[in-house]
Automatic annotation (TrEMBL):
Entries under Pfam families matching the protein: DeoRC, HTH_DeoR
Species this chain originates from: Streptomyces shenzhenensis
Domain HTH deoR-type: 6-61
Name of this protein: DeoR family transcriptional regulator
Keywords for the protein's UniProt record, in alphabetical order: Transcription, Transcription regulation
Domain of life: Bacteria
Record-level Gene Ontology MF annotations: DNA-binding transcription factor activity
Lineage, top ranks: Bacteria, Bacillati, Actinomycetota, Actinomycetes, Kitasatosporales
Length: 263
């Protein structure tokens, strides 16, 4: 039996769906220690009250994680993103060919690369183009296509066609969420297909994601990654999620952001 009443349980279900973007009947049943039929009645009540939207096998918040714009995301977890970007930049060697995704953390990496020499950078992101457009020691290729204003990144068949003509030493991907079970999450299926293709074209695959992205499932479009990819995150990351990823063969790198001691 559940230790909380039905009203409190339903309130918690709404908060959980808002946090993760999706709540399944099986997960909720285990979490609250009640039967699946009890959870289904809860979801039916919450749906009729206009607090959730039903999905196959569960429910999602009506306003579950509308996609934030790149401008909105740039200031989030700023110190963590900088630490992740610094570590990633340190892995790059002269003569390498890199593929950079769109996004704020990968954009931070592009800024760190401004002092690099004798590298080629191909990108789907306007942040990288803006960061490196005036650096004469770096050769930059833009993988054009359809521009998504929210992410400031290119997607679509033209981008995919350009990818098919190139290979890379390293690819650096961003993400909206990471699940040990599903991979990395994005708002748009075009994004997840493109990230999957990007991962296939590189010898080494890195996902740059600050701690809040781990375990987060705000959307329903996923990219499955090769077994030997590397997650680069920060020291606030959930150790249980890190351990689950390591058990799957994922290399995890935990960086330490520079924090204001008076903050």
């Amino acid at each position: 039996m559940s230790a909380i009443g039905s009203k409190d349980r339903r309130d918690r279900i709404v908060r959980l769906a808002t946090t993760t973007g999706l709540a399944s009947v099986d997960e909720l049943s285990q979490l609250f220690g009640v039967t699946a039929s009890t959870i289904r009645r809860d979801l039916a009540k919450l749906t009729s009250d206009g607090r959730l939207a039903r999905t196959y096998g569960g429910a999602m918040a009506l306003s579950a994680h509308p996609e934030a714009s790149l401008r909105q995301r740039t200031g989030e977890a700023f110190e963590a993103k900088q630490a992740i970007a610094r570590w990633a930049a340190e892995q790059v060697r002269p003569g390498e060919t890199l593929l950079l995704d769109a996004g704020s953390t990968v954009g931070a990496l592009a800024h760190e690369l401004r002092t690099a020499k004798d590298i080629m950078v191909a990108t789907t992101g306007l942040t990288t183009l803006q960061a490196l457009s005036d650096v004469e020691t770096i050769h930059v290729e833009c993988l054009g296509g359809t521009l998504r204003p929210l992410s400031q990144g290119f997607v679509g068949p033209l981008t995919e066609a350009a990818l098919e003509r190139m290979t890379f030493d390293r690819v650096f991907l961003g993400t909206d969420g990471i699940s040990p079970r599903h991979g990395i999450c994005e708002a748009d299926l075009r994004q997840t297909r493109l990230k999957e293709l990007m991962a296939r074209r590189a010898d080494q695959v890195y996902v740059l994601a600050h701690a809040a992205k781990l375990g987060r499932r705000p959307f329903h479009a996923w990219t499955a990654l090769p077994e030997d990819w590397t997650l680069v995150t920060d020291d606030a990351a959930d150790p249980h999620i890190l351990e689950e990823l390591r058990a799957q063969g994922v290399t995890t790198v935990v960086t330490e952001p520079e924090r204001d001691p008076t903050g």
